[in-house]
């Protein structure tokens, strides 16, 4: 199940990845303001990425700790797309799968190609 699908902006690359609050329903914060998400990336590596929600009335979520490492490992840039899917892998122990995509234009047609890990 798709939790979020977002085209990256400069702040997402340089600092933290914020996303629409409607995605909060798919994340178990267990009464806290942050949750460590166990995420499998497209190379099969298990990552722990912290998801925080802001205090107060507008609890917009953001990925923080672990996010910048993912940006670096996949050499993400503005305009790329990140997709987070709720998908359990009992062997790896992950709860989510994360995909990085880049816009490709071939023969005048736009498509999104999967990005491999850069290093």
Automatic annotation (TrEMBL):
Alphabetized UniProt keyword annotations: DNA-binding, Nucleus, Transcription, Transcription regulation
Main location: nucleus
Compartment annotation: Nucleus
Cellular component GO terms, alphabetical: nucleus
CDD domains: B3_DNA
Gene Ontology molecular function terms on file: DNA binding
UniProt cross-references to InterPro entries, sorted A to Z: B3_DNA-bd, DNA-bd_pseudobarrel_sf
UniProt protein name: TF-B3 domain-containing protein
């Amino acid at each position: 199940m798709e939790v979020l699908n977002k085209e990256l902006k400069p702040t997402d690359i340089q600092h933290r990845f914020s996303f629409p609050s409607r995605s909060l329903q798919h994340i178990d914060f267990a009464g806290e303001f942050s949750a460590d998400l166990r995420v499998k990336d497209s190379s099969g590596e298990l990552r722990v990425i912290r998801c925080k929600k802001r205090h107060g009335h507008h609890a917009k979520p953001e990925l923080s700790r672990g996010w910048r490492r993912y940006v670096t490992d996949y050499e993400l840039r503005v305009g790329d797309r990140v997709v987070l899917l709720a998908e359990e892998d009992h062997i790896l122990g992950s709860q989510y799968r994360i995909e990085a995509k880049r816009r490709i234009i071939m023969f005048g047609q736009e498509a999104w190609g999967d990005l491999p890990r850069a290093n």
